[in-house]
Amino acid sequence: MIAQNWKCAECGFIAIGLFPPDSCPKCQAPRSSFETEHDWCFPREETDAVISACWKVTYGLYMVSSIDGEKINGQICNTLFQITSDPPRLAIGINHNNLTHEYIEKSGVFAASILGTEDMRIVRRFGYRSGRDFDKFKGVPILRRRTLCPIYEKAIGYIECSVIEDKTVDAGTHSIFLGEIVGGERFKDEEPMTYSYYYEKKSEQG
Ligand SMILES: Cc1cc2nc3c(=O)[nH]c(=O)nc-3n(C[C@H](O)[C@H](O)[C@H](O)COP(=O)(O)O)c2cc1C
């Protein structure tokens, strides 16, 4: 449940909360006078300010992969974070329409290859077109470990997970998969790619 904007039909007062107030603090109209204005919890005119703040949220960049029997696929993902360390768990946000989503749902496993600043090409290859249209892994060197999900061999490292049953959250356009970490390695000690580094380099390269 998230807070909503509740607008008083009598005087226009906006109350923010999970539920409308008992009565309007401005004109004392009853609760029944309140209607939700829209799904977002902030006024429309603040949209630019909110979005520009959201751009300052920091992320890494990963190639998240999964399997469906013999088939493999992967995509770029910035919405990944280690949510707990004991037990070690990761959360990822994956769009419902992605082929990778389909594979994760079916197999219950995924791997995240941690990309370095040299991996612009991998982002371009895995981040813009679906594996439904071409074989993204053709010519890309991979390793397989415990989950059998493909891992980019030249990545900084990888973490692989088993999806925790009944803990997937439907976040609207995306699912949030919570994964129990079942393996991981660091191959080299380089700086990982960040979301902002990628977009900075991308705009320089045109
Ligand atoms: C920089 C960048 C970050 C991305 N982050 C995410 C993400 O966090 N979650 C997501 O579902 N898609 C994300 N995408 C989009 C997917 O990588 C893209 O839709 C991909 O083509 C899906 O491929 P698939 O259908 O083969 O799984 C990102 C793309 C880029 C370029």
Can you walk through the features of this model?
This protein is of the alpha+beta class and 206 residues long. It has two domains: 4-54, Rubrerythrin, domain 2; 62-205, Pnp Oxidase, Chain A (Roll), CATH 2.30.110. The chain contains four helices and 13 strands. It has helices at residues 47-54, 99-107, 120-127, 195-205; strands at residues 4-8, 14-17, 34-36, 62-68, 71-77, 80-85, 88-95, 109-114, 142-143, 151-152, 157-163, 169-170, 174-186. The strands form three sheets. Strands 4, 5, 6, 7, 8, 11, 12 and 13 form an eight-stranded antiparallel beta sheet that branches. It has a three-stranded antiparallel beta sheet with strand order 2-1-3, with no helix packed on it. The protein has a two-stranded antiparallel ribbon with strand order 9-10. The two termini are 41 Å apart. 28% of the residues are buried. The mean pLDDT is 93. Flavin mononucleotide is lined by residues 61, 73, 75-79, 93-95, 98-100, 123, 127-131, 174, 198.
